[in-house]
Write a structure and sequence with these properties.
Elements (H helix, E strand, L loop, with lengths): L2 E5 L2 E7 L5 E7 L2 H16 L12 H18 L5 H19 L9 H13 L4 H20 L26 H9 L5 H11 L3 H5 L6 E2 L4 E4 L2 E3 L2 E3 L8 E4 L2 H8 L21 H16 L8 H12 L4 H8 L4 H8 L4 H16 L5 H10 L1
Antiparallel strand pairs: 1-2, 2-3, 4-5, 5-8, 6-7
Helix pairs in contact: 2-3, 3-4, 3-5, 4-5, 6-7, 6-10, 7-11, 12-13
Length: 370
């Protein structure tokens, strides 16, 4: 049996493994977990088992190995989107790699990870970006433990930076009319489609005529345009069918591109619209002409959600139309816009328990004062 000693705020295991080699393993601030790990190590020793132990390497070497043996393999198996892989590589090249440099991976401790967070915040990175970097570091160290380079994950107990809920700006119906009036075709119909379907920019730019069911009044989201390539939508739930309003159906039917090629929204030469050109040129021009405040294109997706909420749509319907992975995502993001739904549910509960007239005396009293 080994021993547990406290070193600073953390507990350290001191034991002998199945080969008779003395080991020291830093667990973290949780004594209960330290006892559980020590019991597991004792079981491994008594049963002649020992974990793979590899020669220590630098963080730079491990990043290269992890990228090749894990990230690239997952991407080739179709379990990691190329856009996600690019984001991971940017984080590794710009932030994680330069910070740890040539440190040996087995020398990295929790204070080092905390210092990484402070460094990223000092660079004025958004908390959400810092959170992504921390998640990536934790995932890497998890594999370092599994592959035998570490005894424990030094980032396991790092405090996650708090991320404020993204502020959303939604347009009112009069503002929607102003926005559409300021746009020329086909941008006008593209914006109308964004407002009345909640599709993401890449999903709109990747839309093909075969995705539009004029008979069934539905639009199928099957792909997204990213860096000039067609890729699968953001998640499995993002592949969805969206109900098409009559006004949008008529506008789409009038687009000249319907008889010229596969793509619904095209540039003047018939090619797919470049997302960056659209954002910097077309979207900026429409906002300038409309004299509206500077909102993001993504706020049109929020506008669509707010319109559904205003008309009393069920949260599950909103989830399906937006392609959220779970109803929790929908409620977390738009729950604050649903007070009238909350009030309606409270009234239904009152009437279920106390009858259809429950609460009506307050309504009559208010009417009498008017």
């Amino acid at each position: 049996m080994g021993a547990i000693r406290k070193r600073g705020k953390h507990y350290v295991l001191d034991y002998y493994d199945a080969t008779g080699r003395r080991r020291k393993e830093t667990i973290g601030p949780n004594l209960h977990e330290a006892k559980q790990v020590l019991a597991q190590r004792d079981w491994e020793r008594r049963n002649g088992k020992f974990r793979l132990r590899r020669k220590a390497i630098t963080m730079a070497e491990f990043i290269a190995k992890w990228e090749e043996d894990h990230l690239v393999v997952r991407q080739q198996l179709g379990r990691l989107k190329e856009s996600t892989l690019v984001g991971y590589r940017v984080n590794l090249r710009l932030h994680i790699g330069p910070f740890f440099g040539r440190m040996r991976i087995d020398e990295i401790t929790l204070p080092h990870v905390r210092e990484l967070i402070k460094t990223l915040l000092a660079k004025k990175l958004a908390p959400a970006s810092v959170l992504k970097a921390v998640a990536l570091v934790k995932e890497m160290f998890k594999h370092a433990v599994q592959w035998g380079y570490l005894d424990a994950n030094p980032a396991q107990y790092v405090e996650r930076p708090r991320v404020e809920v993204e502020e959303m700006d939604v347009l009112t119906p009069p503002e929607i009319h102003r926005l559409l009036a300021a746009a020329d075709e086909p941008v006008r119909t593209l914006l109308l489609c964004a407002v009345l379907t909640g599709m993401r920019r890449g999903e709109l730019l990747g839309l093909k005529w075969e995705d539009i069911d004029f008979e069934g009044n539905r639009i199928q989201v099957r792909r997204s345009l990213w860096r000039g390539k067609f890729v699968t939508p953001k998640s499995r739930r993002s592949r969805r069918a969206i109900d098409m309003a009559a006004t949008l159906k008529a506008a789409l039917a009038r687009l000249p591109s319907r008889f010229k090629g596969d793509m619904v929204f095209t540039s003047t030469d018939g090619q797919p619209i470049d997302p960056d050109n659209f954002r910097h040129r077309d979207w900026a021009r429409v906002l300038r002409r409309s004299k509206l405040r500077r909102i993001r294109f993504h706020d049109l997706r929020h506008t669509y959600a707010s319109l559904l909420i205003t008309q009393g749509a069920h949260p599950k319907y909103i989830q399906a139309q937006l392609g959220h992975a779970s109803i929790q995502t929908t409620l977390d993001r738009y729950g604050h816009l649903m007070p009238q739904l909350h009030e309606a549910e409270a009234r239904k509960l009152d009437q279920l328990v106390f009858g259809p007239e429950a609460g009506m005396e307050h309504v009559r009293a208010d009417a009498g004062r008017d």
